[in-house]
Each structure stands twice: as structure tokens, then as C-alpha cells.
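Fig. S4 source data, part A: sequence.
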Amino acid sequence: MTEQPRSDQSKPAMIEAIGLTKHFGDFAAVADVSFSIEQGQVAAFLGPNGAGKSTTMRLLTGYLAPSGGVARIAGHDMASDRLAGAARLGYLPENGPLYDDMTPRALLDFFAQARGLRASRRKERIDAVIDQCAIGSVIGKATGKLSRGYRQRVGMALALLHEPDVLILDEPTAGLDPNQIREVRETIRRLGRSKTILLSTHILQEVEAMADRLLFINEGRLVYDGTVAQLNEQGKSLDERFAELTTAAA
């Protein structure tokens, strides 16, 4: 049974999964997953590799169509009203594709035009995310020549370009070195003051550093929904609780 954190009824739900299910043939990658994340909340999505985290995120963003259930971003059904939902959403996929022969500035300009930002607004937002994501030193280099850390920062800048209310970040620190991880964590904490964020990870240390809400998934099913404090009420470490939840579910 999942534990529900206290809800502030004055804040709207910005990310909603209602009975989300996704089948690939006979395999249920996601099975009847439901949760709601309020405005201004940072939630961590945890689970073993292959548990269904990335598939759930793709369902929430509208990149995958669900076999059943509903995904909503800022109240918009991502199956029937995806464009309106996407306008409120910034998505950083794991190993997100970038055009390697383009510079970060060219990429930002291309995506800004694709999102319909006017010329004056385009320059303002590009300058803002260059500063926000600290990519000024590589802004004129080919993206394919950048380190993994800088490529992640460029991906984050693309996700933030249109000032979305909601961010969905899939393994944002995967493959980064300790200094890069610290920088990404600080960026996420800063963004969490004004945006609703769902980030997936299998690194338990990231939870205490960035999130105030936990969602555990295992074998496609939600097995815990609560706060870090609720999870630690038994005096056990996150590693111990992770093992208990995933083993019990299996």
C-alpha cells in the first residue's frame, strides 16, 4: 500500500497519472499507475533499472500513447490535447538526441523558432538559459564535441527555453562526474522554487539532495508514494527501504 503525502488543496495538480498502463505485446511495462504532483513540488521517481520509470515519463509527456489510463500536464490530456500540454512542459529525456554538427546557440535558436518564439523574445530566452545552465563557454562549439556534462546542460537549456511550468527530467545526472552532478543538483533545487518537477533516478543519494516527495515503481507498478520523512519513519536507511519495497513487490 502506498502512503499519500499531505496535499495542499489550494495548489493545482500539474502532473497527473490516472491508471496509466502500457503494454508492449503481452508485456505490461506500466500497470495501473496513479499519482498527482502539485504545483511547486519536486518529486523523485525511483526504481530499479527496467522498473518502468522511463516508460511512465514518456506516457506523461505524450511521446508514447497509453494502452489505458490518462496522463495530464497542467490539466491537459496528453493524448487529446498534447500541444497545449507540451507548451507548459519541459522534457529532458535520458541520453536525449542533439544535432551534433550544430552549436548550442544554433540549437537553441532552432528550437526557439520551432516553438514560435518571436525574434526579440527568442534572444531574451536564449541569453537567459545560456546563463542559467552555464554553457556560455561552449556556446560556439559543435555539440558533438562537448563532454557528457555539457551535453546534459545543453539538453536542460532546451527544456527550459520556453519557460515551462512543469519539468520532467529522466536520469538528469546519469554518466556525470561528481562536480557535474553537484552542479545539476543545484540547478534543479533552484528551479524547484518556481516549477513543478518530476525527475527519475536510481541513485538514492539524489533523493535527499533534491526531492521532497518520493514515488517508487517496481515491475511497472507504483509501490510507494510519500515523503522522505515518511519513508524513514522506521529508522531505516533509504537503501534498506529501497530493497524492502522492490523485493516485496517482486
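Fig. S4 source data, part B ends here. The beta strands are 13-24, 27-38, 42-46, 68-73, 76-77, 89-92, 166-170, 196-201, 213-218, 221-226.
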